[in-house]
Every structure is written in structure tokens, then in C-alpha cells.
User: What shape does this take?
Amino acid sequence: MTEENEKKRPFPGRLTSLPPPPEVEDGSGNESDNEMSAWQKLQSGASTPNLSETMENLKRSLSISALHEMSTKPSAEMRRNIQNKLWRPKDEEMRIPTDWERLMVYVLRVGARTFVLSYGLRGSMSMLFALIKMLRSRRKSRTSLLQQSFLAEDTIRFALMFGLWSSLFKFVNNALRLLTPLPRYMITPVPPSRSRTESDPTPQEGAGEEDDGLVMASKPRKLGKPPKHHKQHKASAKERFRNISASDPRVRWWHAYVSGAISSVAILVERKSLIQSFGPQLFVRGLEGSYRFARSRGFIDIPYGSILVFGIANTQIIWAWFARKDLLPKSYSRWITKASNLPANLLDMNEGCLQADSRGVDPWTMVDLVGGQLPEPISTNPLRYPSLPPTKAFPSGISGKTVAKLYQSFEKNDQRHFPTCALSHPHTNNHLRYLFSDFANRWRWIMPVYLTLYIVPAVFLRPKSFFKDPKHKSLHLVGNAARSSAFLATYIEIIKSFFCLFHSTSNWIRYSPTLSKSKSAMWISDMLQDGRINMLPGFLSCLSLFVEQPHRRSELSAYVLPKALESYWKFGRQKGFLPHIPYGDFWLASVSISLIMGTYTNHPESLSRLVSLVIYQFMGRN
Assistant: This one.
């Protein structure tokens, strides 16, 4: 073969009897190669429409031919299409704006969608609660309550807040991404054939020894390493493409934290009183996500952590409810009083006796509480009193034994101690029977509320799962609501059982002929009626969580902890050991939203299922 023909001879490529090296899959091997693959998928994927494309889509969607085509489709397909428009499917394709015009259109569309979704959810919940109130009320039903569910100022403020929040977060998060330059190794990438392995021979670079025109492959070299500044993702290939941070190399971990903090400006749309309650709730959600992430990495693990948090939070809540109601939000304090089924006047008298400068309860106040007049005894040997008919404060009536304890309290003339236990259930003195009957009454009272809380999210948040098998799903929801109602009833009975135990034991010591003369016994009696002793049943109320479903325990803990933090903050400000921070409610909400959105973007599995589902419906994967 001549030298000229030798030069024209084509390069044979790899001719070897050895098996080729294995292909590198996503999530393993060269990390920079994976980033290039993700970037190529991102660039070739569906982008958000610009202004002209949006107008064309609107014209096409609102055209007569499109409406006629929609009317010819089956009802199931039409319903599925409408649901996908209103509710994001789990496998929704990620869309990312690639320029500033597309970003502005994208932000407006997201804000409008979030406003409509949050407006519908808040209005539907308000309407259902209004229906329950109308059914329970004995007064004439008013249809204006239903109209106010959707037209009330609180509903509009709520929807505006979420719409503005999603728009701000989307704009800032994507703007930071667009302003961040690409890494240098992404601007001038290595060809795919050479980024996977450097063992391929080239005409310029020898590929090994030649023998009769066959090229023997040389030993493959090790795969190259990504730049040091680039952090490796340890998630699986499926998880790598579920959000923008796994696809676009311009995304930094701190983008979501900064965007979340800036988007918290939207919370100023709400009332100041609601901002004060939002701050602790959002802060607890942010801490919950950070704790779950730390636990998944093995940094910390507290056994029964949610149950312990529930008990610690209720030590502050129950103490404040008995001794300092001003430390709790008025609506929350009224709700606890209504759930306890105890007369508000009785609780006010008990709270007054717990104050250090209090002189006790006026005896005539107790007489007015039982109807304004005490009856004469029907028998002096033994001493017995007749039962009293039902009153507004005590609809079940008042037994003769309770009347006898009132007379005994008046003879003792100790206005700081009165038969609190007897007046908490004056129709019977059998504590065990009262606890069982009250458990059934509390379960029946709260059951409609929990049915609403279970059915509304199932219909609006998970419509496909609900309508796929509505009969089985409805029975499942009713069972869950019954179990949650049993949890709340157990929680109430734990508090009330210790309340009766402390006060009945204290009164027994105080009216005992022998124990009343002992100073140590009287000290125990005073301690059992001290307000701080109620911290014990507050903590032991965490045992009621074992009745609830395991996956709901952390949600309940996250619900009561903000109330406890708010109460503790007020107490600390009054005592002077906590400083005053200007606009502290807003700064707390800002830090909390930053933690939540940073965790959702970087480690979404660390957030609770409910929080992740809500944010996904508002934000999607971007």
C-alpha cells in the first residue's frame, strides 16, 4: 500500500475483541457529565410561553372551534382536563422561563392561578363552617352567612396574600437564576463521546498497538472529576429532575432562601392580628423542615419527638388557660372553653382565686351561678338537700350533694377556696361516670368539624384519588374523622380528670377534721389548687396523641406549638426578660418563609406532607 493511499485510508475506529466499557447512567459516574445531560434536557424541554404565544393560546382556547371540539369530548375527559387546569397533577412537566419576557408572563399567570385557588379554598372552608353553624343554631338561618364566605374581606385578603407571595417568589427566584452566569465548564463543554471516557482513540492520539490494521484498545482511564466548587447531588436519577435546582447549573442553594425572605412582604396584606398568629405558625413549619432534614442526615434524633413537643407546648397553654387567659389569643381561649364544656363564669372565678392579690370569690356570686337561691334542707339527720332544676350555666341540673358542698364552703368562710370540682359537673358526683359520658358528648360535638376538615382537602387537594373510589374513600375519611374526634375527647378528659382530682383532694384535706389541723397537709391542699400544678395535666395530655394516627401527630404538634410560643412571648415581655424587637412579627414571618421555601427547593422530602402539597400546588416544581 502506497504512502498516498495510506493517508486516504479511513480511521477504522475501535476494533477490538474486548467488551466495550459500560455506559454511564444518570446519577452515577462523572458529575459534570450528568449536569450536561440535565442542562440539555432543560434546554430542549418545554419553556414558558412569551406574550405573543400567550395571546395565541388564549385566542385558540376561546375560539368557537375549540369550544365546539371541547363539547364533543367525553365527560370524563373534559372533567380530567378541567381538574388539571385547576389542580396540578403529580407528574406535571417542569416549565422554566428562559428570558425576561417569558418570566414576566409566567409570574402573572402563577399569581392569578394562586389567587383563584386560594380564594376558592378559603371561601369553600368558610361556607362549610357557616353551614355547620346554621345547622347547629336554633335561630332563623340567614343566607347572608353563605354570601359572606366568598365576599368577606378576610377571604379576599387571604387570596391576595397568597397570590402576591407566589408571584414575588417566582420572580425573585428565577431572576437570580437568570442573572447567574453559567459555569465555565458548561460554556465550553467536552464532547459527549470524550466526557464519558477518555479511552476512545483518535487520529491525533494513539489508541494502542496496531497489528494488521486492527487497533487494540488501550486501558480505559478514570473518569474526570467535576470542579471543586460544584457540589454533587446524591439523589437518584428520578429525583434529580423533579425541580429546577437539579437541572439548571445556574441555581444556587441560597436562591430559594433569599426569594422566600423577599416574598414575605406579601404577608403585610393581611391584618396585623393575623400577622402575629402567622409568624409563630410559619416558624414552627420552618423548624420542622430543618429538624427532619437534620434527622435524615443523622445529626439528631429524638424518640417520640412530636409527642414530647405536644406535651411541652400544652404545659404553657393549659397553665395560661387556667391562670392567665390574657396570654392566649381570645379566639383560641374561647375555643378551649367551649371544647371543655365548663361554664365560663366558673373558670373566671377559678382564675380570680389564682391571682396573688385576689380576695377570693364572693359567696353571692356562686349563689347567682346556681340560680340565685339555695334551697332549705329536706332532712337534718342525715343532712340532705334537694336537687335544683337546670339553669343556663348548668343545663343538666344541680344535685343535692353539690348544694351541700356549697353550704359547707360558706360555713368555712374561705373565699379563696370553693368547690370547683363539684361545680364543674354539679349534676353528678360520680367522677368516673361523668368522664365517660362527657367523652361521648365531646366526641359527638367535634365529629362534624373533623368531617369537614377531612372531606374538603380530599375533594379539593386529592380529587383523583377521591373520585376513583368515592365509597371506599368516604368510609376511610369517616373512620379517620372518628379517630381524630376520639383524640380530642381523650385530650379533654385527661385535663378534666386531673382538674377534678386536684380540687377534690384539696377540698377533702381542707374539710377533714384531722388533716385540716396539720400545716403540711394544708400546704399540700394549697399546692393542689395552685395554678402551676395544671402544667402537669398539660404535659400528660400528650398521651392522647397515641389515639391519633401516627402521621397526624407531628401536624398536631405543629398546631399547638405556635400558640405556646406566642403565649410564652407575651409572658416574657410582661416580665421583662424578653426584649422588644420593632416589627418583630414581620421579621419572624420573613425568617420562617425563608426556611420553608429553602427546604422545599433543596430538600422537599423534609417538609410535612401537607405543607409540601400546598406549596406544590402554588409553586409547582419551579
In short: The first strand starts at residue 210 and ends at 211.
